[in-house]
Design goal:
This protein is of the alpha+beta class and 182 residues long. Helix content is 39%, strand content 14%. It folds into two domains: 8-67, no CATH class; 71-177, no CATH class. The longest helix is centred in the middle third of the chain and has 13 residues, at 106-118.
Length: 182
């Protein structure tokens, strides 16, 4: 049976609860538990890094039909990480070049420190599996193949800036639509 699509009201209910000056009223863990009640197919790590940290994407990516997404934590090989859809991703390249010029934010500095110490990122990025290139956004944007980076642009930028592609393994949350494929 196909899961019921989330309404606009349902999507708005997924937004983090904020107080004065947009301060969160719930911890990331509390938020993840609340959202998992509506989206039990979402791992807590995905919820916190994608929706809690970037709540503006909740409505933006709803066309993916969240209720039908499946997540698997997998290791990407060096050759996968060198694919143009990731290594030459416009935003990743921009952040990488910014980092290489020494213009780092606190976020990128923390990521770089962690990656220098452990050889990989602190949290697996979120990557949409699109092996046949069939995924097209509701507004007509054709997603890259075989992967589309959904979340983790800073982490990939630092990975490439530090030349850690081969230092893996590097885990990602691989997202598939409409069920799990083997």
């Amino acid at each position: 049976m196909k899961p019921k699509a989330l309404s606009l009201q349902d999507l708005q209910g997924l937004e983090p609860r904020l107080g004065r000056a947009d301060a969160p009223l719930e911890s990331p863990e509390q938020y993840a538990r609340r959202v998992q009640a509506a989206l039990p197919n979402f791992p807590a790590s995905v919820i916190t890094q994608w929706f809690f940290d970037h709540s503006d994407v909740i409505e933006e990516y709803a066309w993916l039909q969240y209720e039908s997404l499946r997540f698997e934590c997998v290791e990407l090989s060096e050759s996968d990480l060198r694919r143009p859809c990731l290594a030459r991703h416009e935003t990743v390249a921009q952040y990488r070049n910014h980092f290489l010029r020494g213009n780092t934010s606190q976020r990128m500095s923390r990521i770089a420190q962690y990656m220098r110490e452990f050889g990989t990122w602190p949290i697996p990025p979120i990557v949409l599996d699109n092996p046949d290139g069939a995924i097209v956004a509701s507004w007509g944007l054709k997603y890259s193949t075989p992967y589309e980076l959904l979340e983790g642009h800073h982490r990939l930028a630092v990975l490439y800036a530090l030349h850690l592609e081969a230092a893996g393994p590097h885990q990602v949350w691989l997202v598939r639509r409409g069920g799990v494929r083997c």
